[in-house]
Structures are given as C-alpha cells and as structure tokens.
C-alpha cells in the first residue's frame, strides 16, 4: 500500500479517523496505520480532535439572545459610516481651510515647475529699408484702390452703407 502521507493526500486517513470507511478498506488502512508512524501520529491527532469535539458542550443561549442580536444588527453601521461620523465635526470646521491649503499647494507646485517667461533684453528689430521703384509703388496703390472699391461694392450688395 502507498502511504497516504507520502502521497500528500491524507483524505483516506481523515475518513478512517471519522469512521466513514467500509470494512475491507478500514481493515487495510488500520494495518497500514499500525505499521506507519507518520500515519499513526496523524490518526491519533484526528481522534483527539474528534474526542474533544464530542466532549464539548455549547453554552446555553439566553432567552433574550435573539432580540439583543436583532437590535445590534439594526444599530450596526459600516466602518465607513463610523469613521465619517467620528470625523464629521472636524471636517466641517476644518475641511474648507484644509481644502483651500491643498489647492494652494497644488497651484504653487504647477507654477514653480513652469520656466519663467521673462525676456531679459527686448531685441530691437532693425528697420528694413528697401529700394522700391516708382512703378512698384504705383501698382501697390492701384491694388489697394481696387480692394477698396471691391469692399464698397460688396457692402452695397448686402444693403450696408
């Protein structure tokens, strides 16, 4: 027989200790337990547990147990509610200043992380001087006049004056 303790499956030994095995299986396991010290120790421990459970007597329940239990269940609140109830006055009195301080710290953190946007010395742009031919100036003036006439015509078409 392969030892149940060596297999790592003591379920047979548990069934034997609880006297749930049939005759031939029980006899085979009893012979093994008598020859195997590990199984014998396991079975004796389980039998001690069964004897202790058989000897234990539950205390009598008081007559008002049910009403007290139901009253306590009705009064029970979650841990979150108990914490909020205990911290409620503190949060009401000090919650707004704490929230304002937290917002101020967060804003200060964002502001301090941004690089400063200060120009040390404004750069002067040099004026560009171009040589323009008189014909170019004349074309530009004609183009500006044409745009002005176009804008005036567009306004008169829409009814604006």
Task: Provide structural commentary.
The chain is mostly helical. It has a domain at 4-55. It has seven helices and no strands. The chain has helices spanning 4-7, 11-17, 23-35, 37-55, 65-75, 79-113, 134-158. α2 (11-17) crosses α4 and α3 (23-35) crosses α4. The longest helix has 35 residues, at 79-113. The radius of gyration is 48 Å and the shape is elongated. It starts with a helix and ends with a helix. The model has no long low-confidence stretch (mean pLDDT 81).
Topology:
Blueprint: H1 4-7, H2 11-17, H3 23-35, H4 37-55, H5 65-75, H6 79-113, H7 134-158
Helix pairs in contact: 2-4, 3-4
**Biggest pleated sheet:** none
Beta strands, count: 0
Task: Give the count of helical stretches.
Answer: 7
- Rounded mean pLDDT is 81
| Overall geometric form | elongated
What fraction strand?
A: under 5%
Distance between the termini: 114 Å
Radius of gyration: 48 Å
Low-confidence stretches: none
Query: Helical residue percent?
Result: over 70%
The secondary structure category is mainly alpha
H/E element string? HHHHHHH
